[in-house]
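Reviewers of the previous submission asked for a worked example of the structure-prediction workflow described in the proposal, so we include one complete record here. The input consisted solely of the amino acid sequence. No template or homolog information was supplied to the procedure at any stage.
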Amino acid sequence: MNILIVDDEIPAVLGVLKIVPWERVGIKRQYTAYSMAEAAELFIRHPIEILLTDIEMGGGTGFDLIQWVNAQEKRCVSVILSSFPNFTYAQRAITLGVYEYLLKPIEDTRLEQSLLRAAARAHEICVTDARITRLVSNPLIERSKQYIQAHIGEDISRNSIAAHVGFSPEYLSTYFKKETGMTLSDFIKAERVAFAKQLLKQTNLPISMISGNVGFDSLSYFSAVFRAVVGCTPREYRQGL
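From that input alone, the workflow returned the following structure tokens.
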């Protein structure tokens, strides 16, 4: 669990770093920034689960930062630590999905308890996201495999599969490799070869015809891929049956 502390006053940041028992709170790494630009850069470079930010800062307010974080779809628990007991500010914080709105000065134990709650909430979000990912990715993988098998003799691309399953090509590639251990390209080749083996075994169709029927543009490429996967040429495979 990582936290980013943002305040344009250096003593305020150092004070938070000093008073919070980070190990007890469950926060491993503490990043610091003194402007919205610095904070955004850290968000881009590092995974950050908790944001503790002031409101009034030069170069962009804490609200601007939280709005930017939300726009990037970063799953982060935001906590405001401000000197302004302002209802309008508190109202806007709620609108932006801020987890807690705290006022300076704050007792050490109160800040610790707040960050404990924020850490617990961040953990809940991580667990929920992981479950959603599994629920989404498993049907995604199966639908992708079914599409490949149903169009084995056609020109199959990452884009065509992604369009069929309704996800971006990048998302599809990432989760297919993560779940199966194979790239889409390697899986397609393996399925083409598996289908070719069935045709070689169950029919007496010419090998050149089988090559085209399983989606290869040339017989030489088909033979090379078949040998790489099976360990022998299509002709040798048929003769050995």
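The longest strand covers residues 77-82. We consider this example representative of the routine output the project will generate in years two and three.
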